[in-house]
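Exercise 7.
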Amino acid sequence: MAVTYLLVDRQTQKTVAYFTLLNDKVSYDPEERSLWNRINRRISNNKRRKTYPSVKIGRLAVSMDYEHQGIGRAILNFVKHAFTNGNRTGCRFITVDAYAAATGFYIKNSFDFFTQKDRKDATRLMFFDLKPFKDAQKKN
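Solution. The predicted structure, written as tokens, is:
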């Protein structure tokens, strides 16, 4: 149901980081109409749906020995690139259930909150729209 990737420092044989990917979907919530409208504005009328395929980052962790070296950001950029170049799944979004302490990291990497209903929960549902990322790659 999920695939876990492990990054290992070949010199020290230490685990540097890991991340897990699995299939997900972004679904319409009638209580969050304004967010849904904001998402749908990015999608042409003939392609609008009540659900959109996505890939979820189930886990992402960097060893404390390798913190603050840009490894987490590099992993996110790898996932963004992997799902916009030669993407065989056709997903539009990346989702994550971010721990409250990690939401700042995801915000810095252009993720957005999906709802305000979970703002007091231990985790927050966040998303990243892959289309603007792909469009920016085409321009460069």
